């Protein structure tokens, strides 16, 4: 008979932040348009469901999805959010393009708000130009994620983040590498 694991006082819940770079996008009209995902990108989004669908569905976990408003970012999270019956909230702070001080304050404020609930799982989908400044801000190092790649940040007991690289898409996209 299987027994349920109980949380011990030495292993309390920890806030987790999953940062996903949008999957491969379709470019039939060029890269200046807000195109959705390509066939390859749709496969990457399905891999995200395979890897994180069960982990994020645990009963105690609350999951919130925040995405860049760009179509390719929303479509990357759509299959996973649909499986978990969750809504995706567009967030201008993690859109692509130059970042302002207000963007930094905004995203830090959002993360701080959600991190107060240690059973919370926050999933952000953003872009290759936004993720490095976000990881630099949170963990002191920049990550360059390939399209469809992700990194999981775990808040430790001092309120600082550590990272765990997830090679979710194995043969579809290489894992994240720290950017020097």
Characterization of this structure:
This protein has a single domain (16-23, 37-178), classed as 3-Layer(aba) Sandwich (Rossmann fold), CATH 3.40.50. Helix content is 31%, strand content 21%. It has helices at residues 39-56, 71-83, 101-115, 131-139, and strands at 16-21, 62-67, 88-90, 120-126, 143-144, 150-155, 161-166, 177-178. Helix 1 (39-56) runs parallel beside helix 2 (71-83). The longest helix has 18 residues, at 39-56. It starts with 15 loop residues before the first strand and ends with a strand.
Descriptive labels:
180 residues; alpha/beta; Rossmann fold; six-stranded mixed beta sheet; two-stranded antiparallel ribbon; 4 helices; 31% helix; disordered C terminus
First and last CA, distance = 49 Å
- CATH topology term: Rossmann fold
Unreliable sequence segments: 1-8, 167-180
How many domain units? 1
Helicity level, as a percent range?
25-40%
Which architecture name does CATH use? 3-Layer(aba) Sandwich
Strand order within the widest sheet?
3-2-4-1-6-7
Mean pLDDT: 82
Order of helices and strands: EHEHEHEHEEEE
Computed over alpha carbons, the radius of gyration is: 16 Å
Largest sheet: 6 strands, mixed
Shape: globular
